[in-house]
Amino acid sequence: MKNINIKSFLVYSFILCTSVACVNEKFDTPSTNNLCESLTANKKVTDFTTQAPTSGFTTHKADDIIEAVVTSSDEGGTFYKSISFESIDNGSGTVGFSIPVDQSNLHTEFEPGRKVYIKMNGLSYTNKNASTIIGEIFNNETPNNTADDQVGRISFVTYKNIIKKSCENVGEERIVKKPLFINQILNDSYINKLIELKDVQFLDASVGKKYFDPTLNNLGSATNHLITDLNGNKIIVRISEFAKFASKIISNKNGKIRGILTKFGSDYQFIPRTERDIQLTEDRKEVDLAPALGGSALTYSGSFTENFDTYTAGSVTTGTKDFPKYINDPLLGSKYWYVTSFSSNKYIVMSAFNSASSGQEQNNKSYFIVPVDFTAANSMSFKTQDRFNTGSVLKVYYSTNYVPFSKVSDASLTDITSNFTIASGTLTGTTKPFVNSGVFNFPVNLTGNGYIIFEYSGGYSLSPARTTTIHIDDIVVN
C-alpha cells in the first residue's frame, strides 16, 4: 500500500478549490451589465431593407450599426437557426427582417422583446419571398465560383461580435400587433413581425390531428395546416416536425394564436413560436368558409324547368358553380354544388368525399337555393341519382323568409323531404337511372315569393363518414 503525501494533497486541494470556487456553494446571478451593451445606431433598418435586391445580394462595407427588437424565438422548435426582428419605431412605422445564425437555442440570448444592435460591416443582404435577409456569404463550397454565392448564416464563431445584445427588453406585449383578423395581415409589411390573431380556429381537416402530421399537407418536414377567422379568411399555420409540441393534438376550439408572419412564394405562412402561443379556449364557432355564389339575376317564377343544359359541365374545379338565377351556398365546409355530365346529360352534383385526407372536411352542409313565386306555383318535382351511398344526405325545404346571401339557418324552413322519393342504395359508382321524386303540391296558404332549398348534409365527423354522392336534375315548378 502506497503512502499518501498529505501536505501535497492539501496544497493541490487548495488550488483546485480556488479555481472552481468550491469554498462557496452559493452561485450569484451574473450581472446583466456583463452580458449586454449600449451602442449607438447610425443607420436605419430601412436604409437596407429598401435597397435589398431581389436577385443576388449587396455587401455592406462600412462601420455602421442598426438597432432592432427580437420578435421570434426558437424555444419551441418552430424556428431553427434564424432570428426575426422588427425595427425600432421612430414615428415612421416599423419593418421586419431576419438574420440566419449558425447556432441553436438562440432564445436564451435573444428573447422576444430584446433590443439588439447589429454591426453591418461585412454583412450582405437580399430580399427573398418579400423578406429582407441579412447574413454572411455562403459560397456553396465552391470558393472559386462566386456565381453561386448567396446570403447564408452568420457563423457561430462570429455572431456574438455582430449581433450585440442591449440591456433593454421592451417586452413582447409592446411589439405584438393585436388583435387582428387574418385578412388584415395578408400584407408584406407584416412579414417577420409578431402578430396575434383573434377569433381563429383550425379547419376541420386538422382538428384531432397532430400539429405535425405526415399524412396532412406534409411539405418540407413540416405540416401546413389552415386556420380560419369568423369571416372565413384563411391562412397557413406551419408546424415543423421538430417543434416541441409536434405530437400534440389540435383542438377544435376557437381563440387566439400568436406568431410570426412569413412568406414562401405567394403563400403567407403563420408560425407560432411555442405551444403557449396557441390559446384556443373558446367554443368552436360556425364559420362560413366559402361565400355564397350566384344570385345575380334571381327571378321568382311560378312555372319553369331547370335541366342545367345551358351551363358548363366539368369537374369540381371546372363545372359551373356560379348560377345567376340560383344561390349556391356552403354553410359548413367549402364544397359547392357544381354542374357535371354523363352521356351528354347535365346535372348538378354534391359529395363530401375526398380521397386526400387533407381535403376531408368534418362537416359539409351545402345549399342549392331556387327562387319561386309560390302564389303562381302549384307543385314541384325533381330527379335524383346516388352513387357510393353511405347514408342519406339530401333534404328539401321551402322558406318564405330566407334573405338572399344570409345564413340559411337564420330562416324558417319547412322540411318537405318525406314527400319525395330520393335515390338510395347505390353502394358503388355504377350509373343507375335517375329517380323521379314524385310531385309535391304546395299548401294553398303558401303564397308570395320564397325559395325551394336543397340541402346536402354529410362529412367525415359522422360514423361512418357520410360521403354519398348525390345528383339532381330536371327541377320542375308548375
From TrEMBL:
Source taxon at top rank: Bacteria
One Pfam family linked to the record: DUF5689
Keywords, in A-Z order: Signal
Signal peptide extent: 1-23
Residue span(s) of domain DUF5689: 41-278
InterPro entries for the chain: DUF5689
Name this protein carries in UniProt: DUF5689 domain-containing protein
Source organism (scientific name): Flavobacterium columnare
